[in-house]
Amino acid sequence: MEGRLQPCLHLPLSQELLTDIVDKAKDWALMHGACMRSKTNFSTDSLNFAPFTLLPSAFPRKEFERAVALQPIVNELMHKVAHDHEFLEESLRNTIKVDEFTGRLYKLYETIRKEGYGQRLSLGLVRTDLMLETVCDCKPLNCQTLCCTPTQPYCCWKQVEFNTIASGFGWLGPASGLIHRYVLQELGHPEMLKNLPENTALQGLCNGMLEAWKIFGKKNAIILFVIENVTYNICDQRFHEYEIRKLNPEVRVIRRNLTEIGNSAKLGANKELIIDGDTVAVVYYRAGYEPGHYMSEREWDARLLIERSTAIKCPSIHYHLAGTKKVQQALAKPGSLERFLSDSKKIDAVRLIFTGLYSLDQDESGDAGVEKALLSPEKYVLKPQREGGGNNVYGEEIRAAMMTMKDSEERSAWILMDRIQPPVQANYIVRPGQPVSTPQDIVCELGIFGVVIGDDKTLQIIKYVGLMVSSKMWEE
User: Fold this and answer.
1) What pLDDT score was predicted for residue 155?
2) Is the CB of residue 422 less than 8 Å from the CB of residue 133?
């Protein structure tokens, strides 16, 4: 364990106080929509509160401010990457041969490129996920934190990933902050509220969709949410819909899965996307990022139809590809950032957040990556070209996976990344149906939301809009 951040309050809390505040926090979450549907006892008529930490997590203040300032730069970088065909082609050349899903996405992209884009503008509602690294070469920082004073681990951000599709928790992120404000007040510590950053992620993301709707320029046009067949994260999605209606009651939102779109959508005379008689101005994907969302050719046909249309996509197919892990690894190569950014300060700022990223292609550099994984698997994370979490491989399982595919083209579908060593902190984890008794050691990831609207020549909007913090149990 390289570093530890101290919790906001002295722990443990007395059992009486803990029981009381946990009960109150659970009720607050349920009554304010910080909820999800159960995966084990699914019903459209019931909700569980989403798991949360009882207390806010601590981050070094200067690093937090740096992460916020960095978001527009990363937005600019990824927007340019998405519009650089040669870079996407070269980065994904080997991956699309062996990863069927990424190959299908790339084939769709090639089809649209050859036909011509129905809509040149793209909407990016993106999220940069960062984790503090305690084993880094950066200079020691003033580690005054947002919630407390740590025992001075020297921390700097390293990027976990950049999300371009279905960047979730635009509501649950701010909602967790509201829970923490309530808890701190109930525990008699209102003086700590000033250290909780304002979080307008929901409003910022929804305003991004409304800006795109306005640019589309048809008053009666609608916004389409592309959803899974079964939605567990329903509050996070619905609160976006409700916020759009709150910000502009004239704009209507509909929800359809890819199968339903395949069955009912069509293109008008001018390539406008029409569903049930309504023209779609903006398509917001909360599905479509994993193979299971495409059960048949009908779903792929639906994705192609959307891409051919004049609707502004979030994301467009080239934005989707820009978010793959292989592209992230290609950007970490020497000289790659200079292709997209001309300001040396911006280049240095982005390069500082890159951790070690290694190709596993069947060439000399890929062989070196395989050797690293086999020699010290505990130092790395093995990542496929997938979004949505739960797909990464860790520890000794990396060695087993590499032994299976080290002589196969399959390895080109993966990348190897240095495993980040984040600072640990104690907190209470509150989960549905589970008792809360003792503080647990956790590590935290900071997600920074941004909005981008532009085409291959211009950027009309580029800004930071909010944040989310995710926590997981620390494992040595």
Assistant:
1) 72
2) yes
Q: What is the dihedral of CA 199, 201, 206, 211, to 10 degrees?
A: 90
Please give the model's pTM, rounded to 2 decimal places: 0.94
CA angle (335, 129, 322) in 5-degree steps:
50
- Number of residues that make up the chain: 476
- What integer is the mean pLDDT of 322-327? 95
Give the HSE-up count for residue 76: Cα atoms under 13 Å, Cβ half-sphere: 19
- Whose CA is closest to 32, among 198, 175, 177, 168? 175
| Beta-strand pair 278-285/424-427 | unpaired
Structure tokens at 61: 């203040």
Q: Would the pLDDT of 143 be above 50?
A: no
The total of other beta-carbon atoms located within 10 Å of residue 73's CB is 19
Neighbours of 40 (CB within 10 A): 7
Spatial contact of 148 and 7, defined as CB atoms under 8 Å apart: yes
Do 202 and 174 touch, CB atoms closer than 8 A?
yes
Distance CA 476, CA 418 (A): 15
Taking residues 83-109, what's their average pLDDT?
A: 97
**pLDDT higher than 80, residue 147:** no
Q: Tell me: the pLDDT tens digits for 151-208? A: 445 578 999 999 999 999 999 999 999 999 999 999 999 999 999 999 999 999 999 9
**401 CB neighbour count, 10 Å cutoff:** 17
Asked if 310 and 119 count as a contact pair (C-beta separation under 8 A), the reply is yes
What's CA 226's distance to the chain center, in Å?
Answer: 17
Q: Which residues of 109-125 are buried (b: 16+ CB within 10 A; e: fewer)?
A: beebeeeebbbebbbbb
Q: What is the pLDDT of residues 439-476, one digit of tens each?
A: 999 999 999 999 999 999 999 999 999 999 999 999 75
Tell me the three state secondary structure of residue 160: strand
Q: Are 55 and 195 in contact (CB under 8 A)?
A: no
Backbone φ and ψ of 420, nearest 5°: -75, 140
Q: Which residue has the tokens 């997981």?
A: 472
What is the 3-class SS of 243-303, one letter each residue?
HHHHHCCCCCEEEEEHHHHHHHEEECCCCCEEECCEEEEEEEECCCCCHHHCCCHHHHHHH
- Cα separations in angstroms, 123 against 72, 110, 142, 335, 365: 14, 20, 37, 27, 35
